[in-house]
């Protein structure tokens, strides 16, 4: 399961973005607020990812700019009647801290501003999220905002395994073929070459 993507913004659409990770493009569904805060095309981005598997749609990746947004998205989806689209809509109008505050004071009107969320569903959301730590970690994030840590670049083999898993390959199989590709190409092989060679191994 993919939990994070570190790469370059290749395209930005109305509902999703294409993230280039070492030559492999990942389509990531995002809310409009997240899409509006993304860097320009070619800019570096670090996205927190929530993966969802469906029999009809396969794997869908949902992207967020910080872990609190991902946490809020996951919590919203646990509520009956709230699917991924409604959860993204809520986060478009309320940041995690604002959602937590609205739930604490029972402000269903604030939640009902989200597209596709009616009064009954808004009431259910504020009722079930009341007293839950939706925005855990915001205080720590505020203290470290002045000097954000630069995410460590993953290893070439790690990137290759993540890329194959993003294409639907099971983790054990992905690691096996990447290891075989690494042995064939040598320790200095970069991720794009490993991915290509690993896909060839899978095709054998």
Number of domains: 3
What kind of sheet is the major sheet? 5 strands, mixed, barrel
Q: What is the CATH third-level topology name of the largest domain?
A: DNA polymerase, domain 1
Q: pLDDT below 50 for ≥5 consecutive residues: which ranges? A: 138-153
Structural notes for this entry:
By secondary structure, the protein is α+β, with helices and mostly antiparallel strands. The chain folds into three domains: 4-64, Nucleic acid-binding proteins (OB fold (Dihydrolipoamide Acetyltransferase, E2P), Beta Barrel); 67-144, 5' to 3' exonuclease, C-terminal subdomain (DNA polymerase, domain 1, Orthogonal Bundle), CATH 1.10.150; 156-203, Helicase, Ruva Protein, domain 3. Helices cover 48% and strands 19% of the residues. It contains ten helices and five strands; from the N terminus they run βββαββααααααααα. It has helices at residues 32-36, 67-77, 84-93, 96-105, 108-111, 119-129, 138-144, 156-166, 171-185, 191-203; strands spanning 4-12, 16-21, 24-29, 44-54, 58-64. It has a five-stranded mixed barrel. Strand 2 (16-21) and strand 3 form a beta hairpin. Helix 4 (96-105) crosses helix 6 (119-129) and helix 9 crosses helix 10 (191-203). The radius of gyration is 19 Å and the shape is elongated. The model is unreliable at 138-153 (pLDDT under 50).
């Amino acid at each position: 399961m993919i939990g994070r993507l570190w790469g370059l913004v290749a395209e930005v659409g109305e509902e999703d973005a294409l993230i280039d990770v070492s030559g492999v493009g990942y389509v990531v569904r995002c809310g409009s607020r997240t899409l509006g805060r993304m860097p320009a095309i070619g800019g570096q981005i670090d996205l927190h990812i929530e993966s969802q598997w469906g029999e009809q749609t396969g794997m869908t990746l949902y992207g967020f700019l910080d872990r609190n947004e991902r946490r809020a998205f996951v919590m919203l989806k646990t509520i009956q009647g709230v699917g991924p689209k409604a959860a993204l809509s809520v986060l478009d109008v309320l940041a995690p801290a604002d959602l937590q505050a609205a739930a604490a004071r029972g402000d269903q009107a604030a939640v009902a501003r989200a597209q596709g969320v009616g009064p009954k569903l808004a009431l259910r959301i504020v009722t079930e999220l009341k007293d839950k730590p939706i925005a855990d970690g915001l205080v720590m994030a505020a203290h470290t905002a002045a000097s954000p840590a630069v995410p460590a670049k993953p290893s070439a083999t790690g990137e290759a395994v993540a890329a194959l898993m993003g294409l639907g390959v099971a983790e054990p199989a992905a690691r096996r073929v990447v290891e075989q590709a690494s042995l064939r190409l040598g320790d200095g092989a970069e991720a794009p070459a490993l991915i290509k060679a690993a896909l060839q191994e899978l095709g054998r």
